């Protein structure tokens, strides 16, 4: 089993401005994820011993940078804003240095254009506006 830790950033302007924030958040995940992993393990009500063990060990897996841990980023942005720099460059190398030849710790990125329209749809579906 694997776990993917997702970070989400949104921008009405230059998406590249979030690069530093994303790296800082991902670097902080092993510490922040500990509470979440413990909560998931404690709240699991099933009887699958392997899943229970996996949930219990997820935080240590992230802390020790084991190969089951991957990282993902959602980047939502306004497609009508001309981007001055390459959108989120070089994240496939996170964390640096990546273990060579193991195919682990890669980062998946989803770029979502038309952020304003998407945000309005989400807010409307949640009855927030």
Q: Can you tell me about this structure?
A:
- With 129 residues, the protein is α/β, with parallel strands linked by helices.
- The protein has one domain (3-83, 91-125).
- The protein is 40% helix and 19% strand.
- The chain has helices spanning 19-43, 49-63, 115-125, and strands spanning 3-11, 69-77, 107-112.
- Strands 1-2-3 form a three-stranded parallel β-sheet.
- The chain is globular.
- The model is unreliable at 99-106 (pLDDT under 50).
Order of H and E elements: EHHEEH
Shape: globular
Q: What structural class results from the helix and strand content?
A: alpha/beta
**So how many helices?**
3
Largest sheet: 3 strands, parallel
Terminal CA distance reads: 39 Å
Largest beta sheet: strand ordering: 1-2-3
Mean pLDDT across all residues, rounded?
A: 76
Helix content: 25-40%
Radius of gyration: 17 Å
Please indicate the count of domains: 1
Give the beta-strand count.
Answer: 3
What are the salient characteristics of this protein?
about 130 residues, alpha/beta, 3-stranded parallel β-sheet, 3 helices, about 40% helix
Can you summarize this structure?
This protein has three helices and three strands, in the order E-H-H-E-E-H. It is an alpha/beta fold.
Outline the fold blueprint.
Elements: E1 3-11, H1 19-43, H2 49-63, E2 69-77, E3 107-112, H3 115-125
Parallel strand pairs: 1-2, 2-3
Helix pairs in contact: 1-2
